[in-house]
Amino acid sequence: MLVQDIMIPCNITVQPGQTALEAWRIIKETQLIGLPVTDRQGVIIGIVSRNEIINCGPIVLEESIKVQDIMQQEVYVLKEEAPVSDAWTLPANVFPVVDNSGVVTGILDRSDVGHALFKVASQMFQQIETIMDSAHNGIVSIDKDGIISTFNLAAERITHRKKSEALGKHLSEVIIPRGLLDILENGNYQSHYKFSVEYSSGTHIYLTNRSPIIENGQIVGAIGVFQDISEFEFISEELSSVKQLNKELEAIIESSYDGIIITDRNGQIIRANKAHERITGIPAESIQNMTMADLTAKGVYSQSVVDAVIAQNGTVTLSELTSNHSQLLVTGNPVRNLKGEIVRVVINTRDMSDLNNLKNQLEESIALSERYHGELTQLRSKLIDQPGLIVKSIQMKQVVEVALRLAQVNSTVLLLGESGVGKEVVAKVIHKHSKRSNGAFITVNCGAIPENLIESEMFGYERGAFTGANREGKPGMFELADNGTLFLDEIGDLPLHFQVKLLRALQEREITRIGGTKPIPVNVRIITATNQHLEELVQDGKFREDLYFRLNVVPITIPPLRERKDDIIPLVYNFKKHFEKVYGMKKEFSHQVFKELMEYQWPGNVREIKNVVERLLVTSTEPVIKSVAIPLNNTTPQRQETNKVTVQGILPLKTAQLEMERQLIGYALKELGSTYKAAKALQVDQSTIVRKVNRLKNNGMSL
Ligand SMILES: Nc1ncnc2c1ncn2[C@@H]1O[C@H](COP(=O)(O)OP(=O)(O)OP(=O)(O)O)[C@@H](O)[C@H]1O
């Protein structure tokens, strides 16, 4: 606002020599608040104001009182175009106003200046309030006592408190964050300060700038501008997850072995991966400026899959043969906007030549592996097919396969199975296929050696070691089996006192002959066998646990014949052929014979089959044997068969006793296969059988 806008226009002036009364009359007539006093040249030299004339009282009515007597010489002349605020700062109540050439054009009253400035201030205040209310950010100001003095519309919206409720109240009664009060105390400016407030509806995050209001160096209040950025925070989180997603997508596209290009609906290429460069030879950078039409023009593709996708409004797969004879499978997938319009096409290019090569290689590998498999099976069956060894059932094949594998290593093997199942046969297979096959295979039937002889049998003795010993001394089984295999059958019958010695020999790999002082190193592979339950013997204290663990390194269980019936007929044929050769005869078995043999439970297992076949061949007079004439299951006689012993003449009782024992024990051993079983069947101790067998041998009688 300028001086000319609020001045009272007037060009009347008075001379210093004019009477005060004259000046009073002019003021009264014109209603002016004062008149400028000019000299003869028209220069303003003072001012007479209405108040001053009145203050002079009745004296002004006297002719002698001149203007110069009552005028104020300290006069502040204002230019028409000066801002009104200039007048406010000057110490005068009436101001003469002049134009640019210094001619008096008006009079300005200080109270008009005050009114004008107040009006301007009101307008400005109104404007500031409008500006504050139109601000998106909440604005709150407080005075030095924390009383809210400003609270704009955005603050209303953000805090859900009415301006009318907020103004004049202490800040802590209106809003939760009290940070503005801290500013009153510390006077620090706080910029971009983030804080969150928990509401029942959820958490809101705010960003605020707070600053103190300072007047004359004193904090008189504080103002805070704040913004609810919960939405931005959410968007920012969304944005970073979208960015992450974009990165992942890029990584996926780049890691694809297939070529991938993305175009807009017009075929303009937006993106292509490295694999596409590998397949087509067009650098991924230069392809960015191309279209699908360019690629077809270059002969990379014979037709545009983008056009096909647009035409068919869906996924399209095309088969392409490139100029360098690569076969490509090109699939275009449309990407649609919310309206369902196609906006992008993602093209996957697969080089089928690689796949075809791989397919061919795979087929070749399969053929090769089938050939190797066939050869392996042949080799395996060649290995399994040992002369005189029948391995037809799956169970027995598994046993022999394991045995062949174990032949390659030196582990101690424990063969488990009923009497006559073929434990010794399997032990021999292991030995025969091992690196020790050139060494000896020594079998020791632990149950057949008298307790007092076992050590000398196993470890040998030096000359003169004991009475009755060979003069020259004798090597034991360990020495005989050096560099070969020692098969310890019926290991469960080993006397306890010898078990500890055997364990030491196995651990130290050396033995000491009886009567000897020097240990003899031996390189022997130990295979043991038993038809007893060693764990039970261990529990009963009849077998040392440490020896049991030392021997039970690799156990192989040979199933009984009744559990592998597929072996029965091949075994029968095998033994038939064998005994026909031995006895020089040829006979046939009827269907009935095979049926009976198949149905029988074979408690004596393979050994029993062997005996039965021999018996059938030698006892039958017919060329075709019609049935198994002898009772098959007569292997474990429990009844007293008194009529089985016949006396045909007189002979010494001792001789008769020996002969009876020879026949009976010999029969039992042949039928049942072990001293253990024979002892059980004859209802005596096993040691009795062993003792009697030795007595018979000592009497020159063979079993
Ligand atoms: N698979 C087989 N093929 C041919 N003959 C076999 C087969 N299995 C065992 N035999 C024969 O059966 C008889 C008994 O076999 P072997 O002595 O190996 O049995 P074992 O289990 O060791 O018996 P024991 O426990 O009584 O010592 C032997 O004459 C052996 O040749």
UniProtKB/TrEMBL annotation:
<dbReference type="InterPro" id="IPR058031">
    <property type="entry name" value="AAA_lid_NorR"/>
</dbReference>
<dbReference type="InterPro" id="IPR002078">
    <property type="entry name" value="Sigma_54_int"/>
</dbReference>
<keyword id="KW-0547">Nucleotide-binding</keyword>
<dbReference type="InterPro" id="IPR030828">
    <property type="entry name" value="HTH_TyrR"/>
</dbReference>
<dbReference type="Pfam" id="PF00158">
    <property type="entry name" value="Sigma54_activat"/>
</dbReference>
<dbReference type="InterPro" id="IPR009057">
    <property type="entry name" value="Homeodomain-like_sf"/>
</dbReference>
<dbReference type="GO" id="GO:0018675">
    <property type="term" value="F:(S)-limonene 6-monooxygenase activity"/>
</dbReference>
<dbReference type="Pfam" id="PF18024">
    <property type="entry name" value="HTH_50"/>
</dbReference>
<feature type="domain" description="PAC">
    <location>
        <begin position="312"/>
        <end position="364"/>
    </location>
</feature>
<dbReference type="GO" id="GO:0003677">
    <property type="term" value="F:DNA binding"/>
</dbReference>
<protein>
    <recommendedName>
        <fullName>HTH-type transcriptional regulatory protein TyrR</fullName>
    </recommendedName>
</protein>
<keyword id="KW-0058">Aromatic hydrocarbons catabolism</keyword>
<feature type="domain" description="PAS">
    <location>
        <begin position="245"/>
        <end position="287"/>
    </location>
</feature>
<dbReference type="InterPro" id="IPR035965">
    <property type="entry name" value="PAS-like_dom_sf"/>
</dbReference>
<feature type="domain" description="PAS">
    <location>
        <begin position="124"/>
        <end position="177"/>
    </location>
</feature>
<dbReference type="InterPro" id="IPR000700">
    <property type="entry name" value="PAS-assoc_C"/>
</dbReference>
<dbReference type="InterPro" id="IPR000014">
    <property type="entry name" value="PAS"/>
</dbReference>
<dbReference type="Pfam" id="PF25601">
    <property type="entry name" value="AAA_lid_14"/>
</dbReference>
<dbReference type="Pfam" id="PF00571">
    <property type="entry name" value="CBS"/>
</dbReference>
<dbReference type="InterPro" id="IPR046342">
    <property type="entry name" value="CBS_dom_sf"/>
</dbReference>
<dbReference type="InterPro" id="IPR000644">
    <property type="entry name" value="CBS_dom"/>
</dbReference>
<dbReference type="InterPro" id="IPR027417">
    <property type="entry name" value="P-loop_NTPase"/>
</dbReference>
<dbReference type="GO" id="GO:0005524">
    <property type="term" value="F:ATP binding"/>
</dbReference>
<dbReference type="GO" id="GO:0006355">
    <property type="term" value="P:regulation of DNA-templated transcription"/>
</dbReference>
<dbReference type="InterPro" id="IPR025662">
    <property type="entry name" value="Sigma_54_int_dom_ATP-bd_1"/>
</dbReference>
<keyword id="KW-0067">ATP-binding</keyword>
<dbReference type="InterPro" id="IPR025943">
    <property type="entry name" value="Sigma_54_int_dom_ATP-bd_2"/>
</dbReference>
<dbReference type="Pfam" id="PF00989">
    <property type="entry name" value="PAS"/>
</dbReference>
<keyword id="KW-0129">CBS domain</keyword>
<feature type="domain" description="CBS">
    <location>
        <begin position="7"/>
        <end position="67"/>
    </location>
</feature>
<dbReference type="InterPro" id="IPR003593">
    <property type="entry name" value="AAA+_ATPase"/>
</dbReference>
<dbReference type="InterPro" id="IPR013767">
    <property type="entry name" value="PAS_fold"/>
</dbReference>
<keyword id="KW-0560">Oxidoreductase</keyword>
<feature type="domain" description="Sigma-54 factor interaction">
    <location>
        <begin position="389"/>
        <end position="618"/>
    </location>
</feature>
